[in-house]
Automatic annotation (TrEMBL):
Gene Ontology MF term list: DNA-binding transcription factor activity; RNA polymerase II cis-regulatory region sequence-specific DNA binding; zinc ion binding
Gene Ontology biological process terms in this record: endothelial cell proliferation; regulation of transcription by RNA polymerase II
Record protein name field: THAP domain-containing protein 1
Record's function text: DNA-binding transcription regulator that regulates endothelial cell proliferation and G1/S cell-cycle progression. Specifically binds the 5'-[AT]NTNN[GT]GGCA[AGT]-3' core DNA sequence and acts by modulating expression of pRB-E2F cell-cycle target genes.
Cellular component, GO, one term: nucleoplasm
Subcellular location as annotated: Nucleus, Nucleoplasm
Superkingdom of the organism of origin: Eukaryota
Organism classification: Eukaryota, Metazoa, Chordata, Craniata, Vertebrata
THAP-type domain span: 1-56
Amino acid sequence: MGGCSAPNCSNSTSIGKQLFRFPKDPVRKKKWVVNCRRDFEPTPHSRLCQVSLHRH
C-alpha cells in the first residue's frame, strides 16, 4: 500500500486519508513538487494526501 510522497508524512488510504496523483500538466506538477518541498521527479505511482495537498 502506497502513502503520501510529502516529507515527514505517513498518511495513506489504510488510515482513511485520500491520496491524489500528481497532475500530468508539467506546470501544475512542478507547483505540486515545489509546494511539497521535495526535490524529486514524481513517478506515475507518486501521490499526495489530502492533508499535505491542502497544507500548502
